[in-house]
Amino acid sequence: MQVIVPEPYGYPPSNAHSRRSSAATTRSTKSIRDRRRSSGALSTHSQSQKPKRYIGDYIVGKTLGKGASGRVKLGVHKNTGEQVAIKIISKTHLAGNPAIEKAVRREIAIMKLINHPNVMSLIDVIDDPASSDLYLILEYVEGGELFEYLVSKGKLSESEARHHFQQIILGLDYCHHHLICHRDLKPENLLLDSNHNIKIADFGMASLQPLGSLLETSCGSPHYASPEIVAGMPYHGSSCDIWSCGVILFALLTGHLPFDDENIRQLLRKVKTGKYVMPDNISKSAQDLIRRILVVDPSKRLTMKQIMAHPWFKETEPMNIHNLPVPSMDIGQPVSHPSEIDDRILETIKFLWGDTDDQVVINALLQKE
After folding, report:
1. Which residues touch 185 (CB under 8 Å, ≥6 apart)?
2. Which among 139, 172, 197 is the end of a domain?
3. Is residue 175 left, alpha or beta, with left meaning phi > 0 and alpha meaning psi from -120 to 50?
4. Facing residues of 17 across strands?
5. Could you give the CA distance from residue 254 to residue 155 in angstroms, rounded to a whole number?
6. Could you tell me if 195 and 202 are in contact, meaning their C-beta atoms sit under 8 angstroms apart?
7. Which of 94, 159, 353, 364 has its CA 20 to 30 A from that of 101?
8. Are residues 346 and 317 in the same domain?
9. What is the set of active-site residues?
10. Are 261 and 221 in contact (CB under 8 A)?
């Protein structure tokens, strides 16, 4: 059973000099840091002074990072001064790497469908036929990764961990209401803005999961992957995301991972059995929440609704609590004729359904139920 470890996209990338930890947490934070290296961390690059270069309406600035799918540059709108992150992807590279091409297409398609304050925004896609590159104009999240912040602090207080966890849950719940599963949640893919608010990023492994269906692709980082994914079983993406949230909460409160081993076989065995040691230096309420999330049987794992009703989660009111997502079935007006279907929406759904034939998608959109 092979678990795919995709390369994370970070905006901005990690800063190696910020990786500080106390003597008490050096080993545990190093463990988290080493796991990241195995999945391919972004690297920073300096850039000498050059004449202004434009991509669309944006002046291209310094390099923020470089990942498997392309470079990330800072962009500044020529009129408004708005800062963005510009992901520059070589079309030749995409043509020669079907897996990366599919991940990029998936990320674009899914990010077009979502809009939430705790999810990083896709502002625009610039695909000039005359250019050898594809440009994704993304929200610039200047605070860096939650991963780097955690490494610098060793572990977080319960109040700070709760603040971040609440926002992760709110953003993820929005995605789940729109039938989108992230499937690669980890601190490297959670960004912090200037006010330390969470932005969920990197939807390259995400999937649209219609109600009543199961997913089968094994994906995600092994330390955060659920037992059913590790075991190669069909799974509900939302339940797997919830498991990952439990691992993240454990890491925020303790500074290390619940499931860890240098040997990948032993690591996967630990995940499948769900055996871990719960530290006694976190509150009983936090322990209870983690235990009820990290349940091997997904049918007995807490749901999003149950997590948000848990006493530890509710100890302080979450931000955006009054902006919970509208269920997907209540959004928009139904279409009654093929001419009412937007071509861009049709193409997005076709891709998310596996490049399904036009007529299959049209028939589904015209159904009343």
Report:
1. 168, 172, 200, 220, 224, 241, 244, 245, 248
2. 139
3. alpha
4. none
5. 6
6. no
7. 364
8. no
9. 184
10. no
Q: Is residue 7 in some structural domain? A: no
Q: Are 171 and 198 in contact (CB under 8 A)?
A: yes
- pLDDT higher than threshold 60 for residue 12: no
Closest C-alpha to 64, from 16, 12, 15, 140: 12
Same domain, 300 and 190: yes
Which segment, 15-24, 123-132, 322-331, 345-354, is predicted with the most confidence on average?
Answer: 123-132
Residue 91 lies in a domain: yes
198-200 and 207-208: which strand pairing? Answer: unpaired
Please state whether the peptide bond connecting residue 13 to the residue before it is cis, i.e. omega within 30 degrees of 0: no
Residue 340 sits in the same domain as residue 212:
no
Please state the domain count of the chain: 3
pLDDT of residue 231: 93
The answer as to whether 202 is a domain residue is yes
Query: What global pTM score does this model have?
Result: 0.76
Q: Amino acid identity of 230?
A: V
Q: Which residues are annotated as a binding site for ATP?
A: 87
pLDDT of residue 107: 85
7 φ/ψ angles, rounded to the nearest 5 degrees:
-75, 130
* Nearest alpha carbon to residue 186 among 296, 304, 306, 32: 32
3-state secondary structure the chain: CCCCCCCCCCCCCCCHHHCCCCCCCHHHHHHHHHHHHHCCCCECCCCCCCCCCEECCEEEEEEEEEECCEEEEEEEECCCCCEEEEEEEEHHHHHHCHHHHHHHHHHHHHHCCCCCCCECCEEEEECCCCCCEEEEEEECCCCCEHHHHHHHHCCCCHHHHHHHHHHHHHHHHHHHHCCEECCCCCHHHEEECCCCCEEECCCCCCEECCCCCCECCCCCCCCCCCHHHHCCCCECHHHHHHHHHHHHHHHHHHCCCCCCCCCHHHHHHHHHHCCCCCCCCCCHHHHHHHHHHCCCCHHHCCCHHHHHCCHHHHCCCCCCHHHCCCCHHHCCCCCCCHHHCCHHHHHHHHHHCCCCCHHHHHHHHHCCC
217 contact partners, CB below 8 Å, separation of at least 6: 4, 207
Q: Would residue 302 count as lying in a domain? A: yes
Pair 53, 167 in one domain: no
Domain containing 280 equals: 146-321
